[in-house]
Amino acid sequence: MTTIIEGMTSVQFLTAINDNFTELATTYDIYINSFVTLTATMTPTEQRDALNHNLRVTSVIWGQTGGSFISRLNTYFNTPFPRFQDALIELVSLGAEPSAIVSADGNTLDIWTTWHHFSTTDGINYTERVALVFGEVPGATEGHGLARVLKEGETYYMVRSKFDIAEGGYYELFLLSSADKINWTYVGDIMSAGNYSATWNLTNPCNSFLWKEGTIWYLIYGAFTDGAGPYKLGLATAPAITGPYTNYAGNPIIPFDAVVSPSGDGRPVLATDENNQVLKVDGKYFMYYHHELVSAGMSIRRAYSTDLHTWTVEGNIVDPRERPQEVGTSNGDICVCQFKGKSYLFYSNNVNGDNDPPEHIDALVDNRTFAELLRLMP
Asked: N or C: more exposed end of the chain, with fewer CB within 10 A?
């Protein structure tokens, strides 16, 4: 870090500021293009706004147990960014992939994992797990995995991924419905492999997030291209929850980057409000997803967009390099939600580095709503 001292010229001051943010980006895996370079031609107001923007970019790495980046940043800039706190909430025997929604009366937070359901009324104490019951799912010869659970009217819906090794693994997204949260019935397939555009010969779709705005249903999901990894993120839309779904011609919306994402990205979720509705803050959607660092475990990233097509990636918000080994170095399969005025980020976690199988679910909790939290960000 370049120390800022009295007597610096304006050029030296701006150079020091920019150099410090570059060092932060390099050290803590924040996308350098997330920062605004301060220049002498900016007005004082523009310089102030750029500095605040850069400080907020750095704050997306929420504090973790044991010497966090945010605590060091707070000390350096004397800026008290509030932090999410680790909280181990639930052990699972196999499979995690949390998905959560708030009850209509706002008093209960229901959470589904790959094979179980549990709930909380205070965000601290959780009920015992209850095993989910699935009816026959055509084509899922070797099982299926969980994605998003949502509620439309009085019906719960769940998106899952069919698994069949003869089909190359996960090969199709399908829809289930339930009236009681536990017993689930097959509704139909909603996304299968196919050559949907010049750059999206889609295979292995899984880990999706489904929501409705107005009369349009939106689906963001992870998938391979041409039958091989790494995972990328794609977008599709439909006039009804059952489809048909049309892929965005510019897919993937989060492409493969061999430098920052050697194994790809997956499990996308968007920030939602207390009514389970996708939240737009100052015209921006905010998306969270897991980012696979081959040599360092799995991390969680965040990006934002105004149109769902073009995304600005901000960097890691849960980075295994900031966490003690015993806390867990593989963090993925995310769910975010707002409950009783607080923001929650649930994720599966493992100390073995590859998250297969995940050992438990962790929660990051912040005492503000997502709207309040996200307005601190760029």
From this structure: N
